[in-house]
């Protein structure tokens, strides 16, 4: 359910979000035994009662939940004309997305992710590369150009993983042409290639985790300190784009942001953790929502931390109970640590 409080859309810095990325679902499988799964090993385990969602859906959901009914969220994506795809369409309608540019493809499968978890809570993720999401191309994205024209100079564009990198670059180029604020994230597997693209220079907000930051700078997490990776990431990304807002998360160790030569660290909030999958996407969503509502970078980072704190309280990668009221409950327990404008936003006083 959306927060019953209202944000005056006319006072928001941005008036809509248009995004590309993966739309799909997945399953969680908990392995028996803590040792790393071998190439030819068979291992027993069991499925967990958790629902997994893909990146565009997760980020868009939280942006919509925080900014309310009147803030248009317009995903661009493809899914299969299958049971999973049909269920996802219903869930996206429920939250209030504008679905004109979400297409079901008969004969194709909806993007699927298989998450395996070790007893200590670590794990990995396997995602299909030949799903309907892989067919989101430049021609399909161009169909939404009328929406870019409609919100020219006052929109947010989101480029999220799980569709081809080339398609995301096209979105960034179109968003630049129409004066949009551009937010992006990349997986560890693709970030080196992404950094080398011309479109990377045009990103305004980059949201990644420490593993992705380490991959970008060619450093090992095992052999380098957190400070080293963050320092080298700042040097790399600001050399390419001096004005970039950089957001780096590291699970229970909190998050760092860099903007205008200032590094800010914000710790996580003390909440009961059910599942950390999707927390990074929730963090990026909170950051986008905060900047859209007119918060400063540091304030938006705190809203992002609150959003990820709410997300991990659910066993699913989308916590449907997350809204501004849920974030206010978390902030009330540590009110002295909450920036005034963040608290006012949660109370809807901005």
Broad structural category: alpha/beta
Counted by DSSP, the helix tally is 12
**Spans where pLDDT lies below 50 across 5 or more residues:** 1-5
* Number of structural domains: 1
What's the order of the H and E elements? Answer: EEEEHEHEEEHHEHEHEHHEEEHHHH
Sheet with most strands? 9 strands, mixed
The CATH homologous superfamily corresponds to: Ribokinase
Which CATH-level-2 architecture? 3-Layer(aba) Sandwich
Report the CATH topology name.
UDP-N-acetylmuramoyl-L-alanine:D-glutamate ligase
The strand order across the widest sheet is 6-5-1-9-10-11-12-13-14
- The Rg value, from CA coordinates, equals 19 Å
**Total E-strand runs:** 14
Share of helix, binned? 25-40%
Please, what is the average pLDDT? Answer: 92
The proportion of strand residues reads 15-25%
Termini separation comes to 22 Å
The backbone outline, from C-alpha atoms, is globular
CATH class: Alpha Beta
Architecture overview:
Helix content is 35%, strand content 20%. The protein is an alpha/beta fold. The protein has a single domain, classed as 3-Layer(aba) Sandwich (UDP-N-acetylmuramoyl-L-alanine:D-glutamate ligase). The protein has a nine-stranded mixed β-sheet with strand order 6-5-1-9-10-11-12-13-14, sandwiched between helices. Strands 2, 3, 4, 7 and 8 form a five-stranded mixed β-sheet that branches. The longest helix has 15 residues, at 226-240. The radius of gyration is 19 Å and the shape is globular. The model is unreliable at 1-5 (pLDDT under 50).
């Amino acid at each position: 359910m959306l927060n019953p409080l209202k944000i005056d859309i006319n006072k928001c810095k941005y008036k809509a979000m248009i995004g590309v990325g993966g739309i799909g679902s997945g399953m969680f499988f908990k392995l028996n035994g803590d040792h790393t799964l071998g190439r030819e090993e068979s291992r027993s385990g069991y499925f967990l009662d958790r629902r997994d969602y893909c990146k565009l859906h997760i980020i868009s959901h939280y942006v919509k939940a925080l900014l309310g009914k009147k803030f248009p969220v317009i995903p661009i994506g493809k899914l299969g004309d299958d049971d999973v795809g049909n269920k996802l369409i219903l869930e996206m309608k429920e939250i209030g997305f504008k679905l004109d540019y979400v297409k079901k493809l008969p004969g194709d499968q909806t993007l699927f992710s298989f998450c395996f978890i070790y007893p200590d809570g670590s794990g990995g993720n396997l995602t299909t590369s030949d799903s309907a999401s892989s067919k989101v191309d430049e021609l399909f994205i161009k169909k939404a150009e009328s929406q870019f024209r409609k919100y020219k100079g006052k929109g947010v564009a989101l480029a999220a993983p799980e569709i081809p990198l080339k398609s995301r670059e096209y979105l960034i180029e179109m968003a630049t042409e129409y004066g949009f604020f551009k937010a992006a994230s990349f997986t560890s597997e693709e970030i080196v290639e992404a950094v080398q693209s011309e479109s990377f220079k045009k990103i305004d907000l980059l949201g990644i985790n420490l593993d992705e930051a380490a991959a970008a700078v060619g450093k090992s997490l095992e052999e380098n300190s957190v400070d080293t990776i963050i320092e080298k990431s700042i040097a790399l990304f600001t050399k390419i784009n001096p004005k970039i807002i950089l957001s780096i998360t590291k699970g229970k160790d909190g998050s760092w942001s860099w903007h205008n030569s200032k590094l800010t660290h914000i710790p996580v909030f003390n909440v009961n953790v059910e599942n950390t999958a999707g927390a990074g996407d929730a963090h990026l969503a909170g950051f986008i929502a905060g900047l859209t509502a007119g918060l400063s970078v540091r304030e938006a980072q705190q809203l992002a931390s609150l959003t990820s704190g709410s997300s991990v309280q659910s066993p699913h990668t989308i916590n449907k109970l997350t809204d501004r009221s849920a974030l206010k409950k978390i902030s009330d327990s540590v009110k002295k640590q909450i920036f005034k404008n963040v608290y006012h936003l949660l109370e809807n006083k901005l």
